[in-house]
Amino acid sequence: MPGAGRQDLAPGGGGNLGVRKMIRIDRYNAIDETRIEESFVRASGPGGQNVNKVSSAVQLRFDAAGDTGLQTDTRERLARLAGRRMTREGVVVIQANRFRAQERNRADAMERLLELLRQAAERPVTRRATRPTLASKVRRLDAKKVRSSNKAMRRSPGVDD
């Protein structure tokens, strides 16, 4: 999905001079593509001799603290969701080494970052307190009576009975 959700924010759109690529997360959040750094390292796991020779694993770093395109509440939710993947400096680090091919690992890391950002961008629905209806109260009390009588039937008759 290369190019999906990206938007050039340069006026006129001519040339690469002054062009900032923005990746849109939702209506209110977009991240600057220059804030994402990729480095390639040797991967562990399947691949045989290829693993020892080729740097196919991707370490993606996104500076969330320095990005102005994220809203404050989104950044706070991102920190909570990222957990140990976020450093103290506010950099989200994502490791991708599922695949043998470097390009597939790059796409996987980018997709995982975007999914994390989409989850952080979702505002939690606030719970509204409601009162139980009269019918639900009656049903609850009837169920308690039935349960009570069942348990009373299990008891052995006492001396007083």
The tally of strands reads 6
Separation of the first and last Cα atoms: 78 Å
Nearest-integer average pLDDT: 80
Largest sheet: 3 strands, antiparallel
This entry's quaternary arrangement is: single chain
CATH architecture: 2-Layer Sandwich
Query: What amount of the residues lies in strands?
Result: 15-25%
- Which CATH class applies here? Alpha Beta
Strand sequence of the main sheet, in spatial order? 1-2-3
CATH topology: Double Stranded RNA Binding Domain
Number of distinct helices: 4
Helix and strand element order = EEEEHEHEHH
Question: Nearest-angstrom radius of gyration?
Answer: 28 Å
How does the overall form come out from the CA principal axes?
Answer: elongated
Summarize the structure.
This protein is an alpha+beta fold and 161 residues long. The protein contains 4 helices and 6 strands.
